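A favour, since you know our structure tokens better than I do. Go ahead and set the record down below.
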Amino acid sequence: MPKILGSPHESGSVAPGAQTNRVAPGKQSSAGAATVVHLRFEVSRVGFPAATAGESQNVWNHVDTLRLDPDAIARFARNGLRIGVATPDSQPAIETILNDPRIELHKEQLFARQGRALALPMSRINESESIFVYGLDNRVAGKTFPAGDKLITIDYLLRAGTRGGLELRVGFEIRNDLGVMTWERHNGVVREVPAFDRHVFEGLVAQVALQPGESLVIGLSPETNNEYLVGSRFLSINQNGRRVETLLFISPRSFQSEWPHVRTGS
């Protein structure tokens, strides 16, 4: 079975002192070349059919769930969600649990694009779905969406001087392609892009710090089984008449390249 979390040595180290937001030039070498840090994200989607749903809770025994502040932990739990961090030391235990032929595993690699957050598609809105969320005021509110895609967004910032440490910002949104094009200015360049109708769940934003080799874990909270909450709507689907619960492992990996003959100054 392939490794779920990847190996720490697969991650290239970030040059000490390199200042970079997502993908940016780093420290200039003596030969005039600039070190550029790039990011890729290894995403593992683990599907637990109803018969193995209890195994997903066993995985959380090996995940650090205290990286978020207590208020955020409680708010996510009320919405049926749990977010944590898997360390390299926890990988063998997690892989032992997931080494079950009934558990489905899909892996993909996503590369960071400068200035843009990652958007992980989860599922489509199914015939006008209603989704309820507990907000910052602890009041529940719902909205019915006629169409669109459920996305988990991951924004990221490389922390200078940490040799690969990251700050991640996790969010949840519904995005519906309007079927028309619009003009967008990005980094001084104007281009035509698809127009979207977006609904962002403002109260469900998590800030998580990762050390090199660690993985972000997103899954369902055990405290609720309400099918209308964000957690169930995003991470639980019906496949061929059976319920499947999704657990996400998101593993950032950095690597370096050099741009030769970079001139600095005026």
Observations:
- The first strand starts at residue 24 and ends at 28.
- Residues 70-78 form the longest helix (9 residues).
- The radius of gyration is 20 Å.
